[in-house]
Amino acid sequence: MALVRVETTAVAVALMRALESDVPAGHRLFDDPVSGRLLTGLPGLVARHRSARVALGRLAETAMPGIRGTAVCRTRVVDDWCRDALAAGARQVVVVGAGLDSRPYRIAEFAAARVWELDLPGTQARKRAALALLPATTNIRYLPADVTTDPLDALLAADGFDASAPTLVVFEAVAQYLPAPAVAPTLEWAGSLAPGSRLVLTYLPERVWRQRARASRRYGWLSAYDPARLGAVLAGHGLTLLQDVGVEDYPDRYPQLRGRRLALREIERVAVAEVAASV
Ligand SMILES: C[S@@+](CC[C@H](N)C(=O)[O-])C[C@H]1O[C@@H](n2cnc3c(N)ncnc32)[C@H](O)[C@@H]1O
């Protein structure tokens, strides 16, 4: 059985993002003044105190080298690809398994889009309680949903989602917590969206899943994909793979990492795919 509950993973990611604010500007991958404010209880206390953040950063690098690096590099790639999709014309965003994702509240380009956050009811309720203390937004809707059982098309249609408009779907750090057959409906739904819609997803490579069996059990990782086959898997759902990046790409993509002491280790990869134009 997993030692880490899936709902707790949202807190861990938000903490890793909150630590980024202490990184000197020349090395920082993104500015995130929001993640720390979405945390409550002990994680919130840690996020609000610099010395506690520094201690947590050191502990994370010692106890789980690569976890922080993966979280922040992945965050930056997803940020970049969200901005690209919004610049390319996406006017709706659906964040599937949104957890404590701070993007809609910290990236200015999201303000012009209609945004839906989907997550399990408990996680979403805790986030909304924390959001009550932040400036109000009018473009973001919240739908409690279990993506393994709830039909996303019907749920969103009932809430005013326009299935004919180009959409950005963010599916970050969720797939590996679901068995592969339970991931498929989300991919199928994303592939059924309007042509030009994009899906940004993260996934665990099969090799990592197999080689790190103990971590897989501890973190409750339930599925993985072979990067060499990802394009075919996505094509089976009507999606064309555009890019797929991992740890080997980060130092070239982000010169800020040079000279920064951040352990990088192959864990998740990040991919972006597009709904092909119908012929
Ligand atoms: C590691 S967190 C990632 C959160 C967010 N995407 C991010 O990157 O900050 C995983 C999220 O997936 C959500 N999740 C897991 N299983 C889910 C399901 N069956 N339906 C909806 N959300 C789910 C969890 O509640 C949690 O918020």
TrEMBL record:
Q: Which GO terms describe its molecular function?
A: methyltransferase activity
In short, the EC number is 2.1.1.-
Q: Name one GO biological process term.
A: methylation
InterPro entries, per the entry? Ppm1/Ppm2/Tcmp, SAM-dependent_MTases_sf, SAM_mthyl_Trfase_ML2640-like
- Identify the keywords attached in UniProt to this record, alphabetized: Methyltransferase, S-adenosyl-L-methionine, Transferase
Q: Which Pfam families match?
A: LCM
Instruction: Provide the family line.
Output: Belongs to the UPF0677 family.
**What NCBIfam families does this protein map onto?**
mthyl_TIGR00027
The record ties this protein, via PANTHER family, to: S-ADENOSYL-L-METHIONINE-DEPENDENT METHYLTRANSFERASE YKTD-RELATED, S-ADENOSYL-L-METHIONINE-DEPENDENT METHYLTRANSFERASES SUPERFAMILY PROTEIN
Q: What does this protein do?
A: Exhibits S-adenosyl-L-methionine-dependent methyltransferase activity.
Q: What is this protein called?
A: S-adenosyl-L-methionine-dependent methyltransferase
